[in-house]
Amino acid sequence: MAKNIAGLKRGFHYDPASESLGIYVDGVHVENFSASSTPRYYVDQYSGSDGNSGRSWDDALLTYQAGVTAATVAANAYQDVTLYIGPGEYDEQITVPCNTTACQASSGDTWLGYKIGRFMIVHLGKAVVIKNSTLATSHTLNVLRMKTEIYGGTFRNYVSSGDFSAIHFERINTGDYGDVINAKVVGAKIEGRSSAQIGIDVDAAQYVWIEDCWFSGFDTGVLIAGNGLGSCVETVVKNCYFRGNTNDILMGASQFTIIENCKFIDDTTTKYISDSDFSSRGGTPTDLVCFGGVCNETELGKFDATNLYVCGMATGYTSAAGNTVPIQSKGNTS
Fold it and tell me: Over 50: is that where the pLDDT of 109 sits?
């Protein structure tokens, strides 16, 4: 079965052998769940109302924040929950909260992360735009909850000072709750506006995976740096494109970071992978590896983050070979 929402096709395929149902948006697989699957919520800017339950397209919510609030309450009950965001421009400051014991990561020696399921936000194509054009000091989407996964959409931020971002994963607590763990962004377009500061900020969060995203128009495309509560741990940036940023990726206090097969395609970029220049977000990255990918330079001078090891990066084209043969560079650039 399939349903068209504003020209975008949502497809479903049921496998009776495994009793699982797959969901596809524009041909891209975004979710599997069983027949006994947990709740799904819906936001429709054109026909929704925040007075609705949000449990179907016919009873959809109107605002992005209302959808997040409804879905995360349900997600605090040991469940995976999916929030579908229909096409439109959502001019909001949005917070994915983590303020109950069900969001706990750990307490003493007891691991409590199992208490909360995944929260999956599925945007129905790039026609879903999330921005905060009227807010002078804010993140556009501020994620404080563990196991939050974001699929698709176009994210913008307009703040031109401070360290505000389009998508922000932040560790906010040392103890009972507020640890962002096991987060994901896949297939999103991250656009800066009015000299915006940061595209995606990994702020002392752990196990954040960023894949197949496009970054342009920022002071810093991706900031991977700790805060006063600790370092970032095990961040992956994979198959992403960077163009028109002052800095593509900046590194602060962090451990075990992998940057894989990314494309740095604007030769006016100041730095590709470098140390953080945000005053409160410094520190030293360790175990930082960049392998594969392409940059629009003939050498690795713009890859100068501390302790960075670059392997197999295609660094440009030789004029003697008629601009057809990439120069392969390997080695430690620290």
Answer: no
Residue 67's SS3 state is helix
Please give the Cα distance from 75 to 168 (Å, whole number).
Answer: 20
Q: Which residue has the higher pLDDT, 11 or 86?
A: 86
Of 71-80, 82-91, 175-184, 323-332, the range with the highest mean pLDDT is 82-91
Closest CA to 202 of 256, 265, 266: 256
Specify the pairing of strand 88-91 against strand 94-96: unpaired
Apex 150 CA angle, 245 and 193, nearest 5? 30
Q: Which of 30, 24, 20, 28 is nearest to 11 (CA)?
A: 24
Taking residue 105's Cβ as centre, other Cβ atoms within 10 Å add up to 23
Distance, in Å, from the CA atom of 144 to the CA atom of 33, rounded to the nearest integer, reads 25
- pLDDT for position 9: 47
The dihedral sign for the CA sequence 277, 280, 285, 288: negative
- Rounded CA separation 138/205 (Å): 18
Domains and CATH numbers, the chain: 1-37 (no CATH), 39-78 (no CATH), 87-332 (2.160.20.10)
Which DSSP string do the residues of 69-122 spell out, in sequence order?
Answer: HHHHHHHTTT--EEEEE-SEEEE--EEE---SGGG--EETTEE-GGGS--EEEE
Cβ-based neighbour number of residue 192 at 10 Å: 27
- CA separation for the pair 14, 20 (Å, rounded): 6
Name the token pair of 199: 């595209």
Q: Does the structure show a pLDDT above 80 at 268?
A: no
Reported as a single tens digit per residue, the pLDDT across 26-43 is 555 555 554 445 689 999
Question: Quick one: pLDDT at residue 134?
Answer: 83
Number of neighbouring beta carbons within 10 Å of residue 108: 8
78: amino acid identity, one letter: Y
Long-range CB contact pairs, 61-64, < 8 A, 24+: 63/90, 63/92, 64/90, 64/92, 64/94, 64/130
